[in-house]
Amino acid sequence: MKQIFEVFIFILIGVSLLWFGYTLFFTVGGPAWGSFGWPKRRRKPRAESMPGDPQTCPVCSAKLDDGELVSSVAFPSMNGGKDRFMHIRGCLYCIGGDRDRVCPVCGLLLKGDEILICRLYERPGRRSHVHVLGCTSCKGPRKRHY
Fold it and tell me: Which of 75, 133, 142 is nearest to 103 (CA)?
């Protein structure tokens, strides 16, 4: 009788440890802990821009109306991937001289012939993403110091 009681106690301890371990590491929505035991960071849902929303010029930060475009040139991919280089001149407001043309990386005012050097990431099913690397002054050919 004593052995049956001990086996019953061990079964209760094992079930309670399994339950405690499961509730410690898993929640209703999936694992509560990320890799290396760090808690997962809860991100706020971002407001995705939808097709038809007004665009913003990356050079002068002007909100563009329907039909107004940013002057840009996208080059073919060199490695066959989904990212490629892109040059952006600006919109009709900053190219026309109505607004200051400012590099979003270094903050310098751009001259009429300077451009922004960007990377264009094409994402299937969603809008393409443009990452500005800099202007021709801050991202252009480096000067050699002899």
Answer: 133
Cα 12 to Cα 6: distance, rounded to the nearest angstrom? 10
CA dihedral 77, 120, 72, 55 (to 10 degrees): 160
- Label residue 99 exposed, middle or buried (CB < 10 Å: 0-12, 13-18, 19+): middle
Mark 29-57 as b/e (b = at least 16 C-beta within 10 Å): eeeeeeeeeeeeeeeeeeeeeeeeeebeb
* 54-104 residue pLDDT tens: 788 888 888 888 888 889 898 888 877 778 999 999 988 888 888 888 888
Is residue 122 scored above 70 in pLDDT? yes
Using DSSP's 3-state secondary structure scheme, residue 81 falls into coil
Give CA–CA dist 118/14, Å, rounded.
58
The rounded distance, in Å, linking the Cα atoms of 87 and 107 is: 17
Of residues 12 and 137, which shows the higher confidence score? 12
3-state secondary structure of 132: strand
